[in-house]
Design goal:
By secondary structure, the chain is of the alpha/beta class. The protein folds into two domains: about 1-80 and about 165-245, Rossmann fold (3-Layer(aba) Sandwich); about 90-165, no CATH class. It contains nine helices and ten strands. It has helices at about 45-50, 75, 95-105, 120-135, 150-165, 180-190, 205-210, 230-235, 235-245, and strands at about 5-15, 15-25, 30-35, 60-65, 65, 80-85, 170, 200, 215-220, 225-230. A six-stranded mixed sheet has the order 6-7-8-3-9-10, sandwiched between helices. A four-stranded antiparallel sheet has the order 2-1-4-5, covered by helices on one side. It is globular, with a radius of gyration of 18 Å. Bound molecules: adenosine-5'-triphosphate. This is ABC transporter ATP-binding protein.
Length: about 250
Amino acid sequence: MTTALEVRGLRKSFGGIAVTQDISLTMQPGERRLIIGPNGAGKTTLFGLIGGEIRADGGTITVFGQDVTKLPMRSRARYGMSRTYQIITLFPKDTLAHNVVLGLLALMPLRNNTMVDLARRPNLHDRAVQLLATVGLGDRALHRVCDVSYGEQRRVELALALAQQPRLLLLDEPLAGLSQDERQLVKKLIEDMPRETAILMIEHDMDIALEFADKITVLHYGRVIVEGDRRTVVEDPKTREIYLGH
Ligand SMILES: Nc1ncnc2c1ncn2[C@@H]1O[C@H](COP(=O)(O)OP(=O)(O)OP(=O)(O)O)[C@@H](O)[C@H]1O
């Protein structure tokens, strides 16, 4: 079976400091994988490399059998990969629906046509509202991003990622900055994502994240130090050393 993601010997240095050191990992289609590690372990850099914002110094990244190592970020989406960001990247003065419409447009062959008349494409708007409804924001579609809460903005990001119907979804701390109630809501949204979508997630909230994961990868100083199912990782002395200091 073709793997969803195959990372081999990935390396990246910034100013001579190795931040990603020979990382390899394999994900199967539909797998739910959690990446954990202390601050500065290189989690976000690894996401940047996989997503294509950061160019690797060495190694390869294959998505559903396609070598994407040298492809720019936007081209990687065409192979089924989509991601959210730790920092929100929405247009604040536009409505939620319009943000999602832009996300949908980015996937279409007419995406480079700046003259596209959105008023003549009501189906796009309807699709955007539908997607917003899947993250519980159907009734907020016509609100501006700057007028909704931080938690709601994070849910718009999830709607945008889902708009791409990804086969591989990268979630960078989807629960960060959310209230307890919003965490539960977003957790449920992630759990309810199509089971065939492989999800790679960075998350600090262990209580929620461990439950979600089929497999966990622990990074430390840019290396994979432990990998396995929940029990293997939690019981491994190296994990305990990092998180508990003993
Ligand atoms: N563009 C950059 N230039 C220089 N150093 C960088 C750059 N990006 C990241 N780093 C450094 O690389 C290391 C790993 O950073 P990264 O953000 O990937 O870690 P992280 O595990 O995601 O941490 P956190 O949990 O705090 O978000 C850090 O020491 C960081 O300062």
